[in-house]
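Lecture 7 notes: from sequence to structure.
We start with the chain below.
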Amino acid sequence: MQREIWTENGLIQGTCVSECEPVLDAFVENFRSSAEVGADLCIMRGDNTMVNLRGGYQSQREDRPWSTDTLCVVHSCTKAATALCAHRLLDQGDILLHEPVASYWPEFVQNGKEKITIAMLLNHTAGLPALRSSLKTGAYLDWHYMVEQLAAEEPFWEPGTRQGYHMTTFGWLVGEVVRRVSGQSLGAFFRTHFGEPMGLDFWIGLPVSEHGRVSRLHRWKPERGFQHAPFTRQLLAAPKSIQALAYFNNGGYKTDSKESYQCEFGAGGGIGNARALARLYAPLANKGILDGARVFSEDQVELMSATEVAGGQDMTLLMPSRFSYGFMKSMDNRYRPAGHIESCILGASAFGHAGAGGSLGFADVELGISFGYVMNKMGPGILLNERGQQLVNTTYESMGYRLSPNGHWVRR
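Predicted structure tokens for the same chain:
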């Protein structure tokens, strides 16, 4: 059913099935009480769209309403698109999960990395979450420079023994394997195998012709006395820490520059909308099939969804984390002092990826749904915040689920 609702922060419009009326209410409430500026939400079940909402403005000047073709940088939601490129090669048998990375990228063998496998790149145990040497200006825009730096880097811990979120390096590490094996750049491989055949308005490297559709991000500013997560406290306090190196050692990268839109930053530079995220995850929620065509084998989807590392202190995030091969699993850290910005609470069978400021895409295999949420006003933390989590919560509640003590959503 078509909806139009006016709020003090702009018009919300789109479609929503009756089952998901509470989700519509939660989306509207984000504009009324959480000062959402512009946002996009899409939920699919199978090939059918249950929720397709957009609202607000592309900028705080309120001169350009958020439209059906608005795009937004989705930060680490990009990692899912990058991971799917690797999973396509795995599914085809072109790479092997437990094969050393150096088998495909010989220069990678330097400085104690000969035993790092494809699996370790995907599950964040490779020990390469940052680079120690100061990067040149414009480093993130130079693919070959970045992969040379990573090939020469020494692991921060013995590979395979600890997990530590590869916040910025994931895209070059996984993407270079994709490039070496396929002969295509990461962005080109994604467009060829997913973007074009699946009709996704999602890009790792956005053409100049599309730049006018991108909504600029609005940075989050903490109020006095805000309790930051340990990750943020450490990156501010210790300039040589993994946290500071991963966050600040970026060659002056600017998220909202035209040069950044064009570069293939596979860990955090993807640009798209909620419909693209939901459709990207749709075959993963439905045994590998979209629109009657097989996108992945059932075995490959099972591999994506299975929890591979869990618990213990994440060496980068400084909190307990849970990952499958390339995706986040449900993380409930609300018992911690800053746990409300260290969590991403999903269903037990769900897997996906959050992006800094609050964007999210995921598939829930048990429910058969896929979910995408993007917004231009960033919130605290690098996982979810109250806006996105409330949309997730309401989605599960409307489908008859409850939050279990184990930190994920289960059927009532």
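Points to note: The radius of gyration is 20 Å. The chain has a mean pLDDT of 96.
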